[in-house]
Structure formats: C-alpha cells, structure tokens
Design a protein that fits this description.
Structural class: alpha+beta
EC number: 4.6.1.17
Distance between the termini: 25 Å
Number of helices: 5
GO molecular function: cyclic pyranopterin monophosphate synthase activity
Pfam families: MoaC
Mean pLDDT: 92
Helix content: 25-40%
Number of strands: 5
Low-confidence stretches: none
Subunit structure: Homohexamer; trimer of dimers.
Strand order of the largest sheet: 2-3-1-4-5
Catalytic activity: (8S)-3',8-cyclo-7,8-dihydroguanosine 5'-triphosphate = cyclic pyranopterin phosphate + diphosphate
Length: about 170
C-alpha cells in the first residue's frame, strides 16, 4: 500500500496560497460520490412528498441546483481547478422514519485532478435549495453530515469512507 502524501500542497515557498500544478499528473477516469442529508419536521417532509410546497417541485429544483453547483465549484472554492465534468447526477431518498431526505451526488470526469469538491458541492447546494424552498414552513431544518463517501481514479486510487462500511 502506497504511503499517503500528508503535505499541504496549496502553499508556495513563501507560505501563500497557490493552485496546485497538475501538469505532470496522468489523465485518468475519476469518480466521486458525496452524501449528506437534511432533517425536517414530519409535516414538512409530507408536504414535499405530496407536492404541496408553494415554491414548486422541491426535489426537482434541488436536483438542478446541485448540478449547477457542480459546474460552479471552481468559482467558489479558491484553489479548486476549473475542470471538465463528463457526468453528474443526484439521487434523493426519503427517510420518513427519521424525517430526512438523504442526498447522494455522483460526479465523473476524465482528467488530471479529481471531482471530490464538485460532488461535495452538489450535495451542499441541493440541501441548501431544499432549505430555501421549505423555510417558510420549517426554519428548524438541519443540514447534516455532508461527506465524501467514495472516490476513484488518480494516483491515490480508490478511497471508501469508513462511514460507508458501518451501514
């Protein structure tokens, strides 16, 4: 097993921020999956399920917003590379028992740097959009546990978050 590089690479010799040079990295297929959830009142979740939110189709809008977040990641994360995205999808799972919407984003590309930040952005923006569309009826919603679940590609290969094996 290769030893992981634990050095901070986003600093130049003067200790100031820089964008990492990926010129010498090999182009590989890269995939990242991020997950998170948003908890809410049972009544709020039921309104989403029944299509009763005044602002419209909550999950449909959150899906598009999450994908737009993927496309704008480099605009918001200062040292993030502006990369070509070859695919992006978001899935929602309604958990009525815990009154949550589970969010999973998958982002793919073929390139010299990974798509982890883009997947995390997709989940974040989808959750924030759900909050925005439902806040008039439930300001107590909580965005929870956004994390990288899995990534593949590049020099470091496959990473599976230990949280995934605990399920």
């Amino acid at each position: 097993m290769e030893k992981e590089n634990l050095e901070f690479t986003h600093f130049n010799e003067a200790g100031r921020g820089r964008m990492v040079d990926v010129t010498e990295k090999h182009t590989t297929e890269r995939v990242a999956i991020a997950k998170g959830s948003i908890a809410m009142k049972k009544e709020t979740l039921q309104k989403i399920i029944d299509g009763q939110m005044k602002k419209g189709d909550v999950l449909g809008v959150a899906q598009i917003a999450g994908i737009m977040g993927v496309k704008h990641t480099a605009d918001l994360i200062p040292m993030c590379h502006n990369i070509f995205i070859s695919g992006s999808d978001i899935a929602f799972e309604i958990d009525q028992d815990r009154s949550k919407i589970l969010i999973e984003a998958t982002v793919k590309n073929t390139g010299q740097t990974g798509v982890e930040m883009e997947a995390l952005m997709a989940v974040s923006i989808a959750a924030l959009t759900i909050y925005d569309m439902c806040k008039a009826v439930d300001r107590e919603m909580t965005i929870e546990k956004i994390y990288l679940a899995k990534k593949s590609g590049g020099k470091s290969g496959v990473f599976i978050n230990p949280k995934e094996s605990q399920k």
